[in-house]
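Need a sequence for this fold. Nothing fancy.
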């Protein structure tokens, strides 16, 4: 859904993350990438909305547990966003493993797991976009995340544990894009 040319999800994300600098740049690129691949792969608008909203759990208005996928999904659910969007936000980019590391698996499981292909699309957009919004290879993104957290941090441990699945998730979307004759260098 859009209002005045911008999607409601984009407006919500930009308002919630205003002043967050690089995080907002990251979200803008993830949203733009999702808009592009959704058109090419015929994905629903909820994937694009989830891309815009995937990091809303970092916003002060949503942060509760310090685990942004859970906080974002909980906040969105309380505002009647569709279950498809909420579940994508809840489970994006290895969230199940990080929930286990944080002792929050039961809370995350209150949300229905999303469609695997749609989750791959969101993971692709997130894991090939650097924290400043620049395009990066998935391996580079994983290395960057690991470098920000010490080895005892739940984020570091979770990314190490979910690294193979995150790379496979990105590779599955790359294969779908290649099958659609999309030059990956043009994926915004």
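Here you go.
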């Amino acid at each position: 859904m859009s209002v005045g040319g911008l999607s409601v999800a984009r407006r919500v994300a930009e308002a919630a993350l205003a002043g967050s600098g690089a995080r907002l740049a990251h979200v803008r690129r993830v949203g733009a990438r999702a808009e592009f691949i959704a058109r090419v792969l015929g994905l629903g608008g909820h994937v694009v909305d989830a891309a815009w909203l995937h990091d809303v759990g970092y916003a002060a208005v949503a942060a509760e547990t310090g685990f942004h996928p859970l906080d974002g999904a909980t906040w969105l659910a309380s505002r009647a966003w569709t279950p498809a969007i909420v579940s994508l936000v809840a489970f994006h980019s290895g969230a199940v493993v990080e929930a286990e590391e944080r002792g929050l698996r039961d809370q995350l499981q209150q949300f229905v797991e999303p469609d695997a292909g749609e989750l791959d699309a969101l993971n692709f957009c997130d894991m090939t976009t650097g924290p400043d919004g620049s395009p990066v290879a998935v391996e580079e993104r994983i290395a960057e995340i690991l470098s920000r957290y010490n080895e005892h941090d739940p984020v570091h441990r979770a990314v190490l544990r979910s690294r193979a699945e995150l790379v496979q998730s990105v590779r599955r979307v790359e294969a779908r894009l290649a099958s659609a004759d999309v030059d990956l260098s043009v994926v915004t």
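For context: The chain has one domain: 2-186.
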